[in-house]
Write a structure and sequence with these properties.
The relative contact order is 0.11. This protein is of the alpha/beta class. It has helices at 2-44, 92-95, 98-106, 124-140, 142-145, 159-169, 171-176, 197-203, 209-216, 220-225, 248-263, 277-287, 337-342, and strands at 54-57, 65-69, 76-82, 110-114, 147-157, 186-190, 239-244, 268-272. The radius of gyration is 22 Å and the shape is globular.
Length: 350
């Protein structure tokens, strides 16, 4: 009888091990499927850059480059885009999106799109420094490139949203590049979900866990240091526009970042758009700039509720650091947008 009991116990252990192995295999399969799907979707995004592009270097590594599109007129504001790709893939040529570049150029902006070194060859800290160094390189060439060095907006999608938000909230990256928060007019974070990394590691989609571990490791202290929402935010932190689709974790993360910025007295607007899952996440990046895509009116656009067009002292209102916070998680009143732009201390809510 005892022998039978031991056999049954052994069988139970073996069954448990087999179930655990099967679960691990299933998780691994999901991760591989997710990576394959992302890779396929990113491949579909490959498109020739908008006309007029010039590639410039800002470092010695082959990936330390940026594409630049000059505005129609010299002295224009500059929009700098940082691509996504899970911190380990992506490229300025397959993740920038022709629509947004053409749209921004049509509004009178100069545009740049940054490449940066990737995990695992470098750390996320080094990626953020690459972004700051690229900004410094652009600013030093402002006269040659033909844009206004005092009117730079930094924007990024997905992993790029985390990187631009980190550069904007942790002043060490800009300082190391010889810059400060005063060198940025504002930031636009597009559908990021890594503003509070410890929280995302705990309650984010399991299918993304490996991506986050590869990027941020397992040390909670390091994860906090790389979390824009957990920084010691200063009053001179550049103003933020946070836009995102209806991904559950993206909503949580965007709301936390907006709340942290608002609490610190930083002007911030958060806006949610339709779309869910990986498809919605990719669509907001690919379609931004298309006049028929709702988020276009909220991106850096001539009729935008966030950034005024390049006319009559453009970019002088919404992102003034001494202005009243516009509307955290609320809409500006479209009918009053011109009044708002002409009087920076006023704002409106629906």
């Amino acid at each position: 009888m005892m022998r039978f009991g031991r056999i049954m116990s052994f069988c139970a252990v073996v069954a448990g091990v087999n179930m655990a192995v099967a679960a691990c295999a299933q998780d691994s399969l999901r991760e591989r499927w997710s990576e394959r799907l992302r890779s396929r979707m990113e491949t579909k995004l490959v498109e020739p850059p908008a006309a007029g592009v010039v590639e410039k270097k800002y470092g010695d590594d082959p990936l330390q480059t940026f594409d630049y599109w000059a505005a129609k007129h010299s002295g224009a504001p500059l929009v700098v885009f940082v691509h996504g790709g899970g911190w380990s893939r992506g490229d300025k040529r397959n993740a920038t999106g022709t629509s947004k570049v053409e749209n921004w150029l049509a509004q009178g902006y100069a545009v740049a799109s940054v490449n940066y070194r990737l995990v695992p060859q470098v750390t996320v800290e080094q990626e953020a420094q690459d972004v700051a160094n690229a900004l410094a390189s652009m600013k030093s060439q402002a006269a040659e490139l033909g844009f206004d060095a005092d009117k730079i907006v930094l924007t990024g999608h997905s992993a790029g949203a985390q990187l631009v938000a980190l550069v904007g909230t942790d002043g060490r990256y800009l300082a190391k590049a010889g810059l400060s928060a005063n060198d940025l007019v504002g930031l636009v974070a597009i559908d990021g979900a890594a503003y509070d990394i410890p929280a995302q590691m705990n309650d984010g989609p399991p299918i993304m866990k490996k991506t986050y571990v590869n990027a941020f490791g397992s040390d909670p202290k390091r994860q906090r240091a790389l979390s824009p929402a957990l920084q010691d935010l200063a009053a001179n932190t550049p103003a933020f526009l946070i836009i995102h689709v209806k991904r559950e974790d993206g909503i949580r993360q965007a709301r936390e970042l907006a709340d942290a910025l608002e609490k610190a007295g930083v002007p911030v607007t958060r806006r949610q758009f339709s779309g869910s899952g990986l498809k919605g996440h990719m669509e907001i990046n690919r379609s931004l700039g298309d006049p028929d895509y709702p988020a276009t009116a909220w991106s850096i656009n001539g009729s935008s509720k966030a950034f005024p067009r390049n006319r009559g002292g453009a970019l002088r209102i919404f992102l003034r650091r001494n202005s009243t916070s516009i509307a955290s998680s609320a809409d500006l009143c479209p009918a009053e947008i011109r009044t708002f732009y002409s009087r920076p201390s006023e704002h409106c809510r629906r």
